[in-house]
Amino acid sequence: MKKKRILSGIQPSGNLHIGNYFGMMKPMIDLQADNELFCFLPNYHALTSQTDGEVLAQNTVEAAADFLSLGMDPEKSVFWVQSDVPEVAELTWVLNNVTSVGMLERATSYKDKVSRGMTAHHGLFSYPVLMTADILLYGTDVVPVGKDQKQHLEMARDIATKFNTLYGETFVVPEPLIAESTGLIPGIDGQKMSKSYNNTLEIFGGKDDLAEKVMSIVTDNTPPDEPKDTKNNALFMIYSLFLEESGRSSLEARFHSPGLKYSDVKKELVEVIWDFFAPYREMRGGLYGDSETVIKILKQGAEKARAAAESYLEAIRKKTGLKYWNR
Ligand code: TRP
User: Which amino acids are annotated catalytic?
Assistant: First the structure.
């Protein structure tokens, strides 16, 4: 059976956290085994919120190094930076013409960002069109995304279908793969873990910083000698991410028996997180601490991505009439 082409991207926002890891990076890395994985860093998208060029460039290389250290395999997968295949911006322009303004106006992610004070500029508004181009340019079958991106995927399907209707079968209409767990990863304050809430635990931060943050995870005030509720318990939920099924059951049993002190569990969790990422940290400090190596891998990835885009580019240029010669 033909392997499915799976594509996803994660914004290079610097200091990737364990919510990014369990929500998106690890599932992607695990998918490499049985699929054709396309994974990229959407730095054009990052322009919607990052206006410091030095910072964006640095975040891009760092996010790439993080991904590679955590197991992204550039031999097995196609791993690149979005803007290294600038043809995606060309496709965005073409797709703009089959995208209705009304649909973009209904985008909850856009409305949320504006209501949180972001400037309502056009880049933010047309974010879903660029995301659609990312997906369609490489003939993607499946897109694993968090629940917050579900609507964007529906838009991508809508845009692909419109283009195909207007110009004839061209694009694969992508299927979403919604990870139910995403969004359920709480930060240290119990809200969804997110950089914008300043409640994250970093993957590759220092140990003191990690300890300080873990010790400040919000807990209820059940006294130590009473059983603890595990539902909506941020400490339990975060700890569980690092455990297999059986470990999780015994942690649950510990929470349910009297005598458990939250502070003891937190101290233990610091060590668990630290040890979990230890081998990756070594990679991060070694091979992937060298930005030249990382950049070389990214450039090779972009070549592979461009090759996959070729037939789609050829088709859209021809069908739209942009290619006016040799018709
Ligand atoms: N919008 C996605 C996010 O913020 C990132 C992204 C950009 C993406 N282009 C994509 C995800 C294409 C999947 C497919 O998480």
Answer: 113, 192, 195
